[in-house]
Amino acid sequence: MLEAKKTNGIREEEKAALADLATKTRNGFVKFMRKYKLDALVAGVGPGYIEAQPDLIPFGIFFGGLKGSEPKLIEIAYGFEQATKVRKPPSL
């Protein structure tokens, strides 16, 4: 604990990884979204390797967008939910 207090929590290795991630995001995802004028990127997420287990289907869906696009993403996700009626709230 005392050693941790002597740091700011981020070493050079983490700083380099964050810088690399920011560069890849700018040069990949951001360029892609802007080039094709997309509001969102949608992907299914599942329990593992779907290719290895074709009888499994995704159990979730991901809506991603550019920084500041949260209101549009909520609108798209809500529209999807209303159009498909596939959402099943968890039973507690």
UniProtKB/TrEMBL annotation:
It comes from the Eukaryota. InterPro entries: AS_sf (IPR036928). This is Amidase. It comes from Parasponia andersonii.
